[in-house]
Amino acid sequence: MENSNGILVYSSSPHKKAPHTTKWIMLNVLAALIPTSIMGIVFFGLNAFLLIIISLASSVAAEFIYYLIAGKPFREIAKDFDYSSCVTGLLVALTLGTNYPLYAPVFGSAFAVIVVKLLFGGTGKNFVNPAIVGRIFIFISFQSVVGSWLAPSIASVTGGTLSTGATTLVNILEYNTLPSLSVWDLLLGTGLSGCIGETCKLAILLGAIYLAILKIIDIRYPLIMVGTCGLLAVALKGFDFAYFLPSILTGGLILGAFFMATDYATTPNTKVGNYVYFALLGLLCAGLRQATNMETVSFAILLMNLFVPLIDKFILNRPFGHFKKKKERESK
Amino acid sequence: MKTDYKKIAVDGLITSNPTFKLVLGTCPTLALTTMAMNGIGMGLAVTFVLIFSNILISLLRKVIPNQVRIPAFVLIIATFVTIVRLLLDYAMPDLYDSLGLYLPLIVVNCIILARAESFASKHNVLASACDGLFTGLGFTVALTLMGAFREILGSGAIFGVKLWDFQIAFFSSSSGAFFTYAIFIAMFSLISGAVIDAKKRKAYGKINELKQENAVVFDNGGNE
């Protein structure tokens, strides 16, 4: 193999590489999150924009400061920077309500990036999803300061009442009331209170389809999670299928399923393992929601992330040419 | 056999610190460090029990038959725990209430049993008392540091004095306790590791000096 200088280069395989580097993947995930962020800013205004910017800046700053303290030169940090902390920061911001104080994402993102990702060895070595931990950290730490969710500035397009205070999901779970908003409203997020990134489901789905076309995520797995979650919710409500779409389209299920549960480092390695993982995730999510009467997608993902090593231990691919021992005994 | 009191002190406080090095008595460490005051109270209660149980076990070490030594130790420890409980209930009812269940649980605290088994039953009275004092102080300092850290971050106060309104409730919760404990163990290992490294380097430097002076080839086994 000769390079442009005409010098013969010896190297071990692989000689040709696909463009799927970590940087490329993370930039595409960021691109897929752009519609969600824009819809969040449109719905919730300046405060949402500020939360997103602060969260992004603090997660990137956390990574740089950590490596500078660890004694890595600045130029090398900038060279190795793979935008994964940008994704973490953006996802943390998208899971916040707009009435969170502006210092909340600073602590959440820094905790997510430093404790969950960098202390365990950097990108791809995190044992749970950093963004989920960031959200839970903020939820545990600052929920008492915040209170209830705010409604977006754009009212319902099909004429339902604006929901404030308790989210539509809590109404479904606790009071068994179907939302007054139509399914279209739930899909577009108009008139629906909630986090910055979870209101407009259509934008999230657009981003997910973009990632699926680029083969960054496998669209089947999150769909399994959403499906099992909806079905168990229906079953828990006495098989009333009117609850199917509202329980899917409220809360953070869509955002969690497509962007957080699909983190490479925290999903099983095998196909069967992934089916088991996402199905259990959906069941756990619906069950916890019904048991606690609040949104539990983040806690369900955190719990299931811890089970990934167990799934990988027991569900293995059959190696090529390998047969079970039973057949060998029969041949004897 | 001459007793090295300086070594006992350094062992109890640093090199075999019960909380950060031996990771013993984690139950009160995790549960009670939400406030610095609780840490001091628990630490001093354990220190008291540790000193007196060590003294008594050391006195009785030739009397207690080897086969029943553990029940005998537990009986002695339980006696002093009862004394501490009654004293605290009388003198400091507030602290008694906040320590709650963890005060009678000192009976089964592994620090005390470990010191009784591994030190007091083999050494003389003075050395055992000294070991109890310094091990207990090591525990007290560790709990107070963790309590102060969690109190400042978790409720914006120190020793019950309000500093500011800002608080990160994560550090008051039990998950924050595990996190704080891990951070403190890591920091302790980092600092003590650095000190040990510095000592080694100093010793190695001396060997180098000797090499140059005597021009003799030392075989250090390939160790840096």
Characterise the protein shown here.
The complex is a heterodimer of chains A (332) and B (224). Chain A is mainly alpha-helical and 332 residues long. Helix content of chain A is 61%, strand content 0%. Chain A is built from 15 helices and no strands. In chain A, helix 5 (104-118) runs antiparallel to helix 6 (130-146). Chain B is mainly α. Chain B is built from eight helices and two strands; from the N terminus they run αααααααββα. Chain B has a two-stranded antiparallel ribbon. In chain B, a hairpin with a 2-residue loop joins strand 1 and strand 2 (161-162). The interface between A and B is small, with 8 and 7 residues.
Secondary structure blueprint with pairings:
The complex is a heterodimer of chains A (332) and B (224).
Chain A: H1 22-44, H2 46-69, H3 74-80, H4 84-94, H5 104-118, H6 130-146, H7 168-175, H8 183-188, H9 201-213, H10 220-236, H11 244-249, H12 253-260, H13 271-292, H14 297-314, H15 325-331
Chain B: H1 5-15, H2 26-32, H3 36-59, H4 69-91, H5 93-99, H6 110-120, H7 125-155, E1 157-158, E2 161-162, H8 174-214
Antiparallel strand pairs in B: 1-2
Helix pairs in contact in B: 1-7, 3-4, 3-6, 3-7, 4-5, 4-6, 6-7
